[in-house]
């Protein structure tokens, strides 16, 4: 490739530079004149309408108009520079095209050119008046929403909505005015296509951002209304699904942005691959959100079905239902996830028939390769449906003693007295000692010297515990004292008291304290006495 620029390329480069340089200079000069004269015109207009403090108001409005002119000039300058560079890179000479358009539109009929300029000015003035009118209407509508009690707690969102609406209206009316001005004197087709593309992209993005704010506000208002009407039978369930508000907002964000991108691609290239992918993405987003809502609704339904009105059932039945809730929820969740995956693959054009047909073979292969996992699952179902123990029961499984926190399909979770959570696979549960069925016995052992009146002391202790029993609701029956063994250090006594399930350890602590109090009050101190017999001065 030659590094020299040919005569035609040099001429094209010079023509494009002159044309876009002159256009850029014209834009800057017009913006400077408009910025300087805006203050005088505003001051004159406010003086004519006799506005109060018109000097300060004119200065404030002039500053705002100047800032708007600077922003507009910057955008137009960047667009001119990008257009000049792009046309030059594609070796498009603008001079003959511009001259042909000028001859066809302006030089052929000077009066038509004057009428064109007046029409363009009329369109711009009409666009400005229309924007001011719609702005007043939007302010009035938003102010009405703020006075509504349903929107009283969403003032920040209403302010954001007002800002987004005004930005969308401002750019929408400006782009419409520019398109109408272009239609009055059609420029080259390339300019029309570029302007149409910019209009479509800008409107798509602006409308999507505005609709997101409206959707977020609507979601918050709906859930706030449902929260305030919890006494209503239907709205009560909506209030319980309030945590879905965040998921709903994120889903709406994805939906509007993907929808806007799909619309933009379809307008630029109707029926193209990108627009098809966008429609598939919208359907998948809707599918995922519907599955998430179904999961939450089914879990709420399961809880309402199994856990409603607990006062009408016994404690054991409530515990059994509380144990079955997470299992049923897990089964429903996995089933919905599987259906969602299959339907999403169908949307992507994947044939799911072989997948469904091979599910049985896959399950068999998994079963043969994961026998321990299958054993855990089968043992979990037997534990659940046989009701060997329930959530909240105090059990002993192997060397672990604690309260059952969760009975899963595969894993049993027990928290011991030290607060340590033990996760035991269901297949390893061989023997279970349940401390939470009907009653348990609290056992306290102590020794008494042989020299005491053991029956009398035991009678006094029993009378003391009978007097103490009304103050301990965990005790279910009168205490019993049994002579457990005759040891060399004294008489081993065992106190047996029937208590409520799971309260044996706590009751044992109370019984030890009461027995010690009673023994000290009777002048008896439990002690261990060791006797060593000596014969001939040597210990034996």
UniProtKB/TrEMBL annotation:
Alphabetical list of InterPro entries matching this protein: LSM_dom_sf (IPR010920), MS_channel_1st (IPR049142), MscS_beta-dom_sf (IPR023408), MscS_channel_2nd (IPR006685), MscS_channel_TM-2 (IPR011014), YbiO_bact (IPR045276)
Subcellular location(s): the record lists: Cell membrane
Task: Pinpoint the Mechanosensitive ion channel transmembrane helices 2/3 domain residues.
Answer: 331-371
Q: What is its main location?
A: membrane
Q: What is this protein called?
A: Mechanosensitive ion channel family protein
Family statement drawn from the similarity comment of this UniProt entry? Belongs to the MscS (TC 1.A.23) family.
State the UniProt keywords alphabetically.
Cell membrane, Membrane, Transmembrane, Transmembrane helix
Membrane-spanning residues where?
Answer: 12-34, 69-92, 112-131, 167-186, 198-226, 247-265, 277-302, 322-343, 355-385
């Amino acid at each position: 490739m030659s590094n020299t620029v040919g005569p035609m390329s040099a001429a094209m480069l010079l023509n494009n530079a002159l044309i876009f340089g002159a256009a850029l200079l014209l834009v800057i000069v017009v913006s400077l004149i408009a910025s300087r004269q805006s203050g005088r015109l505003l001051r004159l207009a406010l003086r004519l309408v006799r506005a109060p403090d018109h000097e300060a108001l004119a200065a404030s409005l002039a500053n705002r108009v100047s800032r708007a002119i600077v922003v507009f000039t910057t955008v137009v300058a960047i667009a001119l520079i990008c257009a000049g560079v792009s046309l030059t890179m594609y070796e498009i000479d603008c001079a003959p095209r511009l001259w042909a358009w000028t001859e066809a539109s302006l030089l052929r009929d000077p009066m038509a050119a004057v009428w064109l300029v007046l029409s363009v000015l009329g369109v711009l003035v009409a666009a400005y008046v229309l924007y001011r009118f719609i702005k007043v209407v939007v302010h009035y509508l938003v102010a009405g929403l703020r006075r509504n009690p349903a929107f009283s707690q969403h003032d920040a969102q209403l302010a954001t909505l007002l800002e987004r609406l005004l930005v969308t209206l401002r750019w929408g009316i400006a782009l419409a005015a520019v398109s109408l001005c272009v239609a009055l004197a059609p420029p080259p087709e390339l300019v029309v296509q570029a302007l149409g593309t910019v209009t479509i992209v800008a409107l798509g993005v602006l409308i999507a951002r505005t609709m997101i704010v409206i959707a977020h506000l609507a979601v918050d208002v709906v859930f706030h209304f449902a929260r305030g009407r919890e006494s209503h039978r239907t709205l009560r369930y909506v209030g319980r699904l309030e945590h879905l508000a965040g998921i709903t907002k994120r889903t709406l964000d994805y939906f509007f942005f993907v929808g806007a991108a799909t619309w933009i691609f379809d307008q630029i290239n109707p029926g193209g691959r990108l627009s098809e992918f966008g429609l598939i993405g919208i359907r998948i987003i809707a599918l995922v959100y519907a599955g998430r809502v179904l999961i939450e609704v089914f879990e709420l339904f399961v809880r309402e079905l199994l856990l409603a009105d607990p006062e009408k059932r016994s404690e054991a039945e409530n515990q059994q239902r509380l144990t079955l809730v997470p299992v049923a929820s897990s089964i429903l969740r996995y089933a919905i996830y599987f259906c969602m995956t299959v339907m999403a693959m169908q949307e992507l054009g994947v044939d799911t028939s072989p997948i469904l047909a091979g599910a049985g073979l896959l399950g068999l292969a998994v079963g043969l390769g994961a026998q321990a996992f299958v054993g855990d699952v089968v043992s979990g179902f037997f534990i659940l449906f046989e009701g060997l123990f329930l959530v909240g029961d105090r059990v002993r499984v192997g060397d672990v003693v604690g309260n059952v926190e969760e009975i899963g399909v595969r894993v049993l979770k027990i928290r011991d007295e030290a607060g340590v959570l033990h996760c035991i696979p269901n297949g390893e549960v061989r023997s279970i000692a349940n401390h939470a069925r009907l009653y348990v016995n609290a056992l306290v052992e102590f020794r008494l010297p042989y020299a005491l009146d053991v029956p009398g002391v035991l009678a006094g202790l029993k009378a003391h515990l009978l007097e103490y029993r009304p103050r301990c609701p965990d005790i279910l029956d009168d205490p019993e004292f049994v002579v457990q063994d005759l040891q060399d250090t004294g008489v081993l006594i065992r106190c047996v008291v029937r208590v409520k399930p799971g309260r044996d350890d706590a009751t044992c602590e109370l019984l030890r304290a009461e027995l010690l109090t009673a023994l000290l009050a009777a002048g008896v101190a439990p002690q261990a006495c060791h006797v060593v017999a000596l014969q001939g001065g040597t210990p034996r």
